Structures are given as C-alpha cells and as structure tokens.
From TrEMBL, chains A, B:
<keyword id="KW-0560">Oxidoreductase</keyword>
<dbReference type="InterPro" id="IPR011032">
    <property type="entry name" value="GroES-like_sf"/>
</dbReference>
<dbReference type="InterPro" id="IPR020843">
    <property type="entry name" value="ER"/>
</dbReference>
<dbReference type="InterPro" id="IPR045010">
    <property type="entry name" value="MDR_fam"/>
</dbReference>
<feature type="domain" description="Enoyl reductase (ER)">
    <location>
        <begin position="32"/>
        <end position="347"/>
    </location>
</feature>
<dbReference type="GO" id="GO:0032440">
    <property type="term" value="F:2-alkenal reductase [NAD(P)H] activity"/>
</dbReference>
<comment type="subunit">
    <text>Homodimer.</text>
</comment>
<dbReference type="InterPro" id="IPR036291">
    <property type="entry name" value="NAD(P)-bd_dom_sf"/>
</dbReference>
<protein>
    <recommendedName>
        <fullName>Enoyl reductase (ER) domain-containing protein</fullName>
    </recommendedName>
</protein>
<dbReference type="InterPro" id="IPR013149">
    <property type="entry name" value="ADH-like_C"/>
</dbReference>
<dbReference type="InterPro" id="IPR041694">
    <property type="entry name" value="ADH_N_2"/>
</dbReference>
<dbReference type="Pfam" id="PF00107">
    <property type="entry name" value="ADH_zinc_N"/>
</dbReference>
<dbReference type="Pfam" id="PF16884">
    <property type="entry name" value="ADH_N_2"/>
</dbReference>
Length: 352, 352
C-alpha cells in the first residue's frame, strides 16, 4: 500500500513555477531580488498529513511583503527565507485534501505562496469561499485580507462616528479605496491622497471621496491638509507614514485617532524619516494605534457577509489591477513601491 | 452703598508681588524671560462677581508651562500673555469669597497665578481641600494636578495589568515617582530613568522601583532598555519624548501602550527631534496615546480619597523640592529643564 501511495504521488508530480527570494533587500526592491524558478510538486497530500494541495488562481501583491524581504530581528514579523518560495495571500482551488473540512474542487482564499501549486499545512490560515457568485479575484482583495484590513482597521481601531472628518493616504490602493467608501457609508467627510492625477480623479468620481489631492504635486503637505480640512481631521487612516503622518499630526483635532495600517513610504529607507510633530499627541490627546489584520481573522465570516452584501447592493465598488502569469509577480510586487498599480494589485496565475 | 463698597475695596488694597512673562521664549527659558514685579491688589471681590480672592501658599512649577511660553498657534493650549502674570496650579487660602461654595479661611487648590494674591473667577478650576491633616503642599503635588495626572494617565490611558513591564522616564519627577509607585501597587515590574545617580538611587531605595538607570550615562538608550527589560516593555509612561521614546518603541512588546504625559526633552528645541521607529507601531500593534489631566478633573474627589488613603497607610511616599519665596519662581521654573529639582518642584509663597 505504501508503495502504491508512493507511485501515485510520483505519478501526480507536475511542474511548478515559483517565485523565490534570491537575496535580502535593502532600499527599493528590484525584480532581480527575486527569481522565477521551475520545480516539481506532488499533487498528492503526503499520507497522514492534515493539509491540502491547492492550485493558485490569483496571488496578492501587498506592500507589507517588502518588510519581510529585509533581514531584521522582529520575531512577530518573520522574514522570507532565502531561496524559498515567497508566501502571500491568494485565491486557490483545492486539488487534493487530507482534511475532512476540505475536498477537491473547493475554492479557498488565505495564506498560500507565489507558485502554481502549494501544499498548505496551516489550514487555520485558509477560508472556504462562500460567495463564488462574486468575482473570485475579490477574495484576494475586497473580500480577502485587504478588505478585512480596511474594515477592522476603520471600525475597530479608528472607531468612526457620523460626521467625522476622515483622511486616507494611499487612498486608491487595495485598502484605501475601501476605507474611503466605508467612511462615506458611515456618514463621514472623507479626503484621500494618491500619487497621480488619474488616481485622484478616481477617488472623486468612482469611489465617492469628498475631496482628494495628488501628494506629489503638493510642496507643503501641511498646507494641503489645511486646505482640505478646515475643521481638522478626526481620523487619519495611515497607509504611508513619514512626512504625511507628520503633516496629519499637525491637522488632527482634539481626540483625533490615527489608525496605522502601514507605512509604505518608509519600507525602502535604510534610515526611516523622523516624525517631528508627536508633541501634538499630548496637546490634542491623540491616539495613534497600529493594527494587523491577523488579529481579526476570527471575525472574517461576519465581515464576508457584510461586505458581500455591500458589493451586491452596489454600495461598494472595487478596482483591481491584474497582471497575468506567475512570471509577472516580481514586477507587480516592485511596482507597488512606484505606485504603478491602479487599485488592488494581483496576479492571475491560472484560469478559474 | 456703592461708595462704601468702593472705599472698602480701596482700603483693602495690598502690595502684590507677581511673576510676569517679559517675552516669548525660544530655546531654553532663562530667568530673564520673566520678571518679578510689585503691583497692588484689592482683597475684596468686586461686587456681584462670582469669584474668590485667595492668598497663595504654594505655587507649582511644571514642565508643561514652558509650552505656554512659546508663541504658537495651538488653540487648545493657550499662550501666556506678555506682561501679565503667569498662571499655574497652587495651594491657596480664601481671603474673601463672592460665591456661596467658598468662605474666607477655606483652603483650596487649583488654577491660580504666580503672585501673592489672586482673584480667581473660574471657580470650576479650584477644589476645596478635604485632607488638611496631610501636608498642605501635597495639594500642589501628589494630591493635586501631578497626582491626578499620574493616576489617570497610568490607570485610564496605560491600562496596566498585574505583571506588566512598565518603564517610566523622568521617573523621580512630580509625576514619574508616583507612576512607579502605582505600578508597584498594581503588581507590575517597573524601571525608571532619571538624569543623575542621586535620582537613580532614590528610585531604587525610596520609591521601590525594581531597577533604574541614569540616561545621561548611557551611550545607547536602546541597549539600556534591552538590559533592563529582557522581556520587553508593556507600558511606557512617557514624560520626555524624543530619543527616549524612539528607543522605547524598539523595546515595546506586542500590544504595548505608550501613555504620553509630556515631552520635556522637546520643549526647548526649535526643531523637535524626529522619532524614527514608528513602524514598530504596526508590527507590534502599539497604542500611543496622549492625555491631559484636565479631562480627569471630574474624577478628582475619588482620586483624592484613594491617594490620601495610600499616603496615610504609607503605601505611597512623595518627595518635594521646595523653593522659598515668590522671587524664586523664575529660577525654579528654569531649573526644571536642567533637572535641578529632586522630586516635585514647588515654591512656598507664604506661611500656612
């Protein structure tokens, strides 16, 4: 029987293109920091292992991945291992299952890897897809990790009230576009910043932001925020950090809240920019709070239903930037740091 | 009757030495930025005015006052008015009252001014003293504004749990010495930093800190904190800001809390130091929250009873640094920024 299983496994071995990290990154990542290699993989789950083998359909490219490319010593944020496949969130189809909760053909999303087929052993990090009638790619975005990030960061960390003045940076990105729309649904006034006139235009016309500005065209971010928020800012949903955070602090209102989702402007700097206006935190009694979506995975099913409802009713729209083919993963990842993506960056790996 | 009142008022005029702000301050304050002048004051409350005239017994010198000496544009933090008396917290005796809640002879503490006699019109900013059996000067410290600051900042903002690792900067100061003792009462492990070996010794021997260090003797604050907190820091009670905050961020544990009480290291700098380690806020899900004691005045009576109990039972001790005479106010205020005070700095203005 063991021999038969072995033969079946060998028989089921297929070619598996994957993206590995070649070297730890300093400064801006380049495509050369990664390499697309071809390995082989067994499509059979090793006997006795509570795991699934999945075929990856969509892979997500997210700014936080840059931090895992740096050699660091932050145990809560493990580094990618040199020479091994880069892990990421994705949408996948189960090929074979070694666990009763999953069966071949199931559609799932969650933590997988930048390759065609992945053996997933941490089954707590994947979720079955309950709304396959919506675009499957949404589970790498609005119905997946970035969606839950926007939702939990905005409602649980920023704690909005109707009428709040809300500022969102990187506002057309995977998370920002959703925070803006959730803010409007909540009855807030919302302004976004982005890095091109095209993106600014999208914020105002497609995503319903009350106002938006192109930060690359502003000489003085403090003045730009003063212009957009004559009453000051109640909530700053921070995706960028650095000088934008510094300017936002000057414009926060009493008891303002800064929900820190990410700091993309800092990830490629060897010496992060200094934030100088923290004294405002005392005078204006500001709360700055970082969060990570992994703490909210327990709330996913509730979120999925609410967000699916919003999408079906047309309350929320979502824009994706889809590259085609595993070979495009390195360029798509690098492009995030130049703002090349318009909307959520993902890569289609295989037809649905 | 009006004439009689007028005559009585004129008759009751007395000499009143007061400390005025001569010029707005940049950089470190000097005694020359202030001036002690002699005016006259009526000891009678103007007819029809809901106010009290008090004789000031003790005046408090606090770091936050430096911020009010700068010309700025922060409406929630009004500047001192040039040529006018500097306001501060103090302990006073009512000389005459125009309000039924107060009568001559009452002992009060609250917002008064750096002078011998003050007409107080904001009666919501003063409190009658319920424990005159304790040293009256305590109402300028442990039973007054600094005490309530330590208590509310530690319990309401930092939200300690038994076993938490707590770091306090400016730890022998008016607020810091209390935060450390409250942390010990709560069952925390507490380490303080201070600016002299004498102060460090006090922290360990008199105030019961588990450990302490002289920050002026440390070349690398990050290394000093790593040495003192091998498990990392759950709560940083920040009185200083700047490089100490930056080092603390590197040493915070998951879900660490930074209660920002003040940033004395930054008040005299024209360009504040940049804080570079804010990215930790995301990876470690840190909350940084500023607060001001004025929001907690509504809880004062409860605090007063609890703190008076601790003092009587010997659970908490308090160290004061008392200068003598109104002429000493400028030097005492300036001295705060050189760490000359050992314990809570106040000035005795008149015998009790």
């Amino acid at each position: 029987a063991a021999e038969e299983a072995m033969e079946a496994a060998v028989a089921a071995e297929v070619s598996n293109k994957r993206v590995i990290l070649k070297r730890h990154v300093t400064g801006f990542p380049t495509e050369d920091d990664m390499e697309v290699v071809t390995a082989t993989v067994s499509l059979a789950v090793p006997p006795g292992l509570a795991a699934v083998v999945v075929k990856n359909l969509y892979l997500s490219c997210d700014p936080y991945m840059r931090r895992r490319m740096t050699k660091h010593s932050e145990p809560s944020y493990p580094e990618f291992v040199l020479g091994e496949v880069i892990t990421t969130f994705g949408v996948s189809k189960v090929v074979e299952s070694g666990h009763p909760d999953f069966k071949a053909g199931d559609l799932v999303w969650g933590m997988t890897a930048c390759e065609e087929y992945t053996l997933i052993t941490k089954l707590g990090s994947i979720f079955k897809i309950n709304h396959p009638e919506l675009p499957l790619s949404y589970y790498a975005g609005v119905l997946g990790m970035p969606g839950l990030t926007a939702f939990s960061g905005f409602f649980n960390v920023a704690k909005p009230k109707k009428g709040d003045y809300v500022f969102v940076s990187a506002a057309s990105g995977a998370v920002g576009q959703l925070v803006g729309q959730l803010a409007k649904i909540t009855g807030c006034y919302v302004v976004g910043s982005a890095g091109s006139d095209e993106k600014v235009n999208l914020l105002k016309t497609k995503f319903g932001f009350d106002d938006a500005f192109n930060y690359k065209k502003e000489h003085d971010l403090n003045a730009a925020l003063k212009r957009c928020f004559q009453q000051g800012i109640d909530i700053y949903f921070d995706n960028v950090g650095g000088t934008m955070l510094d300017a936002a602090l000057l414009n926060m209102r009493l008891h303002g809240r800064v929900a820190v989702c990410g700091m993309i402007s800092q990830y490629n700097l060897e010496h992060p920019e200094g934030v100088r206006n923290l004294a405002c935190v005392v005078t204006k009694r500001i709360r700055i709070e970082g969060f990570r979506v992994i703490e909210y995975f327990g709330t996913y099913r509730k979120f999925e239903e609410e967000m699916a409802g919003h999408l079906k009713e047309g309350n929320i729209t979502y824009m994706e930037d889809v590259a085609e083919g595993i070979e495009k993963v390195p360029a798509a990842l690098v492009g995030l740091f130049y703002g090349r993506n318009i909307g959520k960056q993902l890569v289609a790996i295989a037809p649905e």
